[in-house]
Design brief:
The strands form 3 sheets. A 5-stranded parallel β-sheet has the order 2-1-4-9-10. The protein has a 3-stranded mixed β-sheet with strand order 5-3-6, with no helix packed on it. The chain is built from 13 helices and 10 strands. With 330 residues, the chain is an alpha/beta fold.
Length: 330
């Protein structure tokens, strides 16, 4: 009995640590004790609607990285540029460093190379990211490569104190048996009450699923929220100031890449679309070159977003990468 008590206690502590720490959570995943609850897409995870349950598959890389290249690429980005989706092998560069929003890093630029900074953000977070100075990347004036982040900062970044409950739910109820119960509840809620999870929303024809923040016009992140010319002007001024600051720190070129919200491409007529991306990219006062994937997505001949996910298909990813390489002259 004592052995059972301590075993249960150890498991509770282990899973609690997994909910608190990304490192422990990944370790549990590597051991096979938990499975990835994003494996069918983040929107399926939120909604549990079975007709959007499509396994996500890794996309092939281009194997373009080169130790003889004279360009170093630094990328500040969100989930679209996570290591599982984008990496050094997708660019013909010698050095690649990706910085996640809200997780500051340092970098040492190589003065003998062309140092390029690409700022990537999904449309829903564009205004928030540039509403204040970007401090995610600080440059150390020295030759070499990546400057190490102090251990105490890495530990702080690894901890998730605000979303422990959600992470614990993911660890404990990510198996297929749990999805079966969630799907049953989701089907009943939709069929009987015409409702789905508050975190997601269906297209008007019920053929697509989006994040609720992308479609709710009362939310700042929405494709259909109010956006005045004055707000666009202020946003452009902030983007210009950000690029100027990084150039003063040693970067040769700074680029902006805005990935459209899924609803902006698949259902722009749902309400009054604010055309945030176009208004920024075409603004006469913008001095920062942009990676215009919005235009390519609106003309795409194949689906660019996964059915049950906010992120792109392999085709949509390749469109983005090819445009990045073209604009950045890589």
């Amino acid at each position: 009995m004592r052995f059972l008590k301590y075993t249960v206690l150890a498991l509770v502590v282990l899973f609690w640590a997994g909910g608190l720490s990304s490192t422990v959570g990944h370790w549990l995943y590597d051991l096979g004790l938990v499975v990835d609850d994003y494996r069918y897409g983040d929107l399926y995870r939120v909604s549990a609607l079975p007709h959007f349950k499509t396994p996500t598959t890794p996309c092939p890389t281009a194997n373009l990285a080169s130790d003889t290249a004279t360009t170093d690429l630094y990328l500040i980005g969100d989930s679209f540029s996570e290591a599982e989706r984008i990496g050094r092998s997708d660019f013909p560069v010698d050095h690649y460093q990706r910085i996640k929003w809200e997780f500051p890093q340092q970098a040492k630029l190589n003065p003998a190379h062309r140092n390029v900074l690409l700022i990537e953000t999904v449309e829903r977070h564009l205004r928030d990211h540039f509403s204040q100075p970007i401090r995610e990347l600080s440059v150390v004036q020295d030759t070499g490569r990546t400057a190490l982040v102090p251990w105490y900062k890495r530990t702080y970044q690894d901890l998730h104190r605000e979303d422990v409950e959600e992470r614990l739910e993911s660890l404990l109820f990510s198996q297929d048996w749990a999805f079966w119960f969630k799907e049953l509840k989701a089907r009943i809620t939709l069929d009987w009450f015409d409702r789905i999870s508050t975190g997601a929303s269906l297209s008007l024809d019920k053929q697509h699923i989006f994040l609720n923040t992308d479609t709710d016009s009362t939310k700042r992140q929405s494709s259909f929220s109010s956006l005045t010319d004055g707000q666009v002007n202020a946003l452009v001024d902030s983007i210009n100031a950000t690029a100027d600051r990084f150039k003063r720190q040693g970067f040769d070129d700074v680029y902006l890449a805005v990935v459209p919200n899924k609803a902006s491409i698949l259902e722009p007529n749902r309400a009054v679309y604010n055309h945030l991306i176009e208004r920024v990219q075409r603004h006469p006062g913008l001095h920062v070159p942009t990676v215009d994937v919005y235009s390519r997505y609106t003309r795409a001949s194949q689906p660019v977003y996964q059915p049950g996910d906010t992120h792109w298909t392999c085709y949509g990813r390749e469109l983005w990468l090819s445009e990045v390489r073209r604009v950045l002259q890589l």
